[in-house]
Amino acid sequence: MSSMNRRDVLKLAGAAGVAATGPWWRVGKSHAQRPKKLVYWHLPNFTPLADQIQKEQVYEFAKQAGLKESEVEYAVVANEQAAAKLAASIEAGNPPDVIRLYESNVQFYGSQGHLLDVTELVAKMRREPKGIFESSMTAVVYKGRALGVPLAVNPWPVHARLDLLEQAKVEYPKTWDEFIETSKKIQSPPRLYAFGMCLGLVEDTTDNVMNLLWCYGGKMVEADNRTVVMNSAANVAGVKVIEAMFKTHKIIPQGAIGWDNSGNNKAYQSKQAAFVMNPSSIYAYLDSNDKDLQKVTGLFPVPAGPKGTVNQIDTWSYGAFKKNPYPDIARGLIEYFMQPANYDKIIQSTGGRWVPVYKRLFDSPFWREKPEFKHFVNMAETGVPVSYAGAPTPAAGEVLNTHVIPKMIQRVLVDNWEPAKALEECDKRIVEIYSRYNKA
Amino acid sequence: MVRTTSGSRRILKWIGNGLLVVLLVWTLLPFYWMIATSLKADREIYGFEATLYPHRPTLAAYGRLFGTTPFMKYVRNSTIIAIGNTVLSLAFGCLGAYALARLRFPGRALIARGLVVTYLVPPALLFIPLFAVMSVLRLIDTHQGLILAYLSFSVPFSTWLLMGYFRSVPLELEEAALVDGCSRLGSLVRVILPMSLPALAVVTFFSFTQSWNEFLYANVFVNSVEVRTITMGLSLFVVEDVFFWGPMMAASFLSTLPPLVMYLIFQRWVVKGLTLGAVKG
Q1: How far is B6 from chain A (nearest CA, A)?
Q2: Domain spanning B68-279: which superfamily?
Q3: Which CATH number applies to A29-155+314-382?
Q4: Residues 121-140 in B contacting A (C-alpha not used; CB under 8 Å)
Q5: Model pLDDT for residues A51-97, shown as the tens digit of each residue
Q6: Who's near B158: CB < 8 A, 6+ residues apart?
Q7: Would the ipTM clear 0.90, i.e. be above it?
Q8: Nearest residue of chain B to residue A41 (CA atoms)
Q9: Which CATH architecture has domain A158-310+402-439?
């Protein structure tokens, strides 16, 4: 076989390029000719019952809208895999009509012009009696227009072991100082550590760390979404508290440095941690898998720091993609989902995983009768996104996804850097990210 | 001197055996862990101490798998796609390899080397352009679409491997068949393929397992449960930050069985094919 020269390689590369990109000009045509009039990508809810109800609602709506079943595509997409699938479908001009989007993704896709304007629909929701939790609006509003419909407010309560508190004859701590003292009383390492704080290079670490820093007056960026303030005295104070909890008081397990997003869930579910800060996914898991542990689990606001208690929320939303020959059907489906009667069925069937955006739904016995949920209204009302004091913009999304803040905390806990030095490095990285997006 | 050599051999043998034991444990332990976890209750999985074996074995995870998920549909889809891809890989691979090994035409060398280049392009780069192609051809969310996508990695490998093997078949045998009136296709089917069974076994095994285990294309090109494969089904056992380990391990264990059975059937030829065909040409 003769050897291949440079020209051969170029020919080959050219042929491969033409073959791979050749049909691009036909993509638009293919999209317009699609046989389905409604394409809904469903990210699994927390319980099979909620999934079932939502599926039924899709087909109920389709029937009302005069669509045949064959004209509806209901696809189940795993949460973790949705990003790759969505990226490919957007590039190919064939995204779903409606999908559930996580917090900063609304502004990410919205700022690129992919999402339909749903301002009128959101305005209608706000006109419902008692309205909606306005805290959810920061996630969906871009340049004054709503590009997503808030589906659920997701508080990050502290899951706390009430039985251990009772054994030690102590109350749930009101401040972080009390938290440290209480932790020392109830823990018995290595079998049980008090605080399952996520410290690995994952998103939950950013959430856990920032939540504590806010209580000390810290934040990542100002409300103008431009001025990065990571390198501040307040943040230094907060990081020092985390450092002390990890190194001095040893109330956080050393292994937390290597946890993934499920690390704190597993620690709590296996009774190796008495406190964890997490969305109520843990509580919902216990509801269907470990009732005994659920009975001794309380859901509380985070303890207060010098600047009080600041609770985190994140917001899930519905987004409708513009590249859709039937935009009214897509809007109609979201509106159908969000009709309070339909919506309440889904929310309650998730066993507490999703917290309603409609305030009046908290009047129902489901939320009133369980003492665990008594703090949720206040948390949903006053909670802030992880990007606080800024909005969950695409820049904030990149900070979260590239684990800039987890790297900072690991500088302190693993590399033994001074908090101020670690925060300075972190600040530079965040400034670089925000500058890039603000220039664009 | 003899005694020293014998002693050295014995030591080497022990080292070799020791390494084999390590490799065996290395290979089998995850498999064992998967089975053991699938037989544990959730409480034991999440218990403080990791248990080496299920203390109270239960089939609850299997019950949940078959009772609450369309697992058998996933198996059906994976089987259809893996068999379809295997059959087509064999057909295209044999014809392509024969042409490249036996026929003389311009660009033959370029195509032969291009096969390797094609095989080396990672799926992560190809999935977006391929998605566009599939959209145009209306092959998204179809078995056919996924089979076609999988051919993009199985045919280059199959052709390359078979090409090397076909070259090792003496030309004289084929010429004799041609003189006796066989066509090119006839000589391929009657002479070359029967002599290339080990290589065909490797291609069959390779194409089947690659298709069976593939995730990225399946995730991107498939939407409905009617086409969803096992690997996609597995990913649905992770909901946000919670892992449903029991059913996930049960499904993982069951999904390893078809490739395992296949390997046991083809084992003899696979080893021979890998050691002979792959190094020729």
Answers
A1: 47
A2: MetI-like (1.10.3720.10)
A3: 3.40.190.10
A4: 121, 126-133, 135-138, 140
A5: 999 999 999 999 999 999 999 999 999 888 888 889 888 988 889 99
A6: B89, B90, B92, B93, B97, B203, B206, B207
A7: no
A8: B223
A9: 3-Layer(aba) Sandwich (3.40)
